[in-house]
């Protein structure tokens, strides 16, 4: 396809004309990758970031002769764009995005743009919780089986950069709802929907149905040749499916019931049956990832592996030796018989629920940050049964106190990670676990969840 003369807009209609201007809003990994791919295909490229651009990306844009601006948006130029590639972090309600849409300028995601030039097959994984772990596990299984596979989306190098510079047969992509909102013609060869639980509702008019519909965009454009993998036990997924027309071959997974096709649990063994003669089974005690939530993640990855007809021995080996991603239930040390677990990536209630569900000792829980309208009620039973003290970390802790004052005897406020870790250490006893699983965004005291997790690990080392 001639990328300059025939660009597809969000309605699927071609945009005619030469000298097409692609504007990219946001100059981090996603935006820089999109700029590299757009330049490769002959577009006039302009990158605009309302904040400061990191030196790494700035030097890369300069070395390639790609025009950019930082700390502001030149609206007049941006509004002249043929098409805009938007960072997932910029909301639809941003004034500049509204102006672009009012003018009829297509606004798309980096994934959508890269998909036009991608020749590899794609495995796209979304869900409110577990998508990073499942994406990494799936990539690990495929790579260990010898497939020529890339990893992108919310993880590592951007999809667009890799499409421009690499040559893979498969990609495993972690896809957020924000990315899906700006994807229109992209098609997943294998789509995985892990679960749908309340998250980012401020971006969806505080309506769960809007958020769920965003997640189901993972299905768009799929055909009978494609595959859709989903959780049979997740009520929001099952409810949302009533509003969908699924064309792809569907494989559910469940730990609550036996299924004719898909994955299920029987006598503490994962069974995968895709309707063929070749079955897969593995004891959950042999999984590298423990906890109920990780059984779901392993089932989803296992179905992908069997769809690709990988050998059972290879799948078992990979599921047994996988090491989880940083900041997700990461062991940060053991001091005086007290385990310290870094789950800083838990930025919503459900992630913290999964973390607590996997704990087998008494817990001192470090909780708090930027509250996105959290409903803490779903944590109350777990907190009552497993948590001996809560250490609040952040500027706004009133809702945490209100939610748990009847469940735990000790709730302490702290205003730095060092203070939170020191107090948690003194509140814990030998055999306990200090768990950082904040259930909130990190932006009040930290740059991001990685910074929060790194500070936690540093504070543990300093004890």
Automatic annotation (TrEMBL):
Q: Where does this protein reside within or beyond the cell?
A: Cytoplasm
Pathways per UniProt = Cell wall biogenesis; peptidoglycan biosynthesis
The kind of enzyme this is, by top-level EC class, is ligase
Principal subcellular localization: cytoplasm
One of the record's GO cellular component terms = cytoplasm
Q: Which InterPro entries match?
A: Mur-like_cat_sf (IPR036565), Mur_ligase_C (IPR004101), Mur_ligase_C_dom_sf (IPR036615), Mur_ligase_cen (IPR013221), MurD (IPR005762)
State a single Gene Ontology molecular function.
Answer: UDP-N-acetylmuramoylalanine-D-glutamate ligase activity
Record-listed ATP binding positions: 127-133
Asked if the record carries the keyword Ribonucleoprotein, the reply is no
Keyword set, alphabetical order: ATP-binding, Cell cycle, Cell division, Cell shape, Cell wall biogenesis/degradation, Cytoplasm, Ligase, Nucleotide-binding, Peptidoglycan synthesis
Q: Recorded E.C. number(s)? A: 6.3.2.9
Give all residue intervals belonging to the Mur ligase C-terminal domain.
Answer: 327-440
One of this protein's GO BP terms? regulation of cell shape
Ranges of residues in domain Mur ligase central: 125-304
Among HAMAP family, the record links this protein to: MurD (MF_00639)
Physiological role: Cell wall formation. Catalyzes the addition of glutamate to the nucleotide precursor UDP-N-acetylmuramoyl-L-alanine (UMA).
Please give the name of this protein.
Answer: UDP-N-acetylmuramoylalanine--D-glutamate ligase
Q: What is the lineage of its organism?
A: Bacteria, Pseudomonadati, Bacteroidota, Sphingobacteriia, Sphingobacteriales
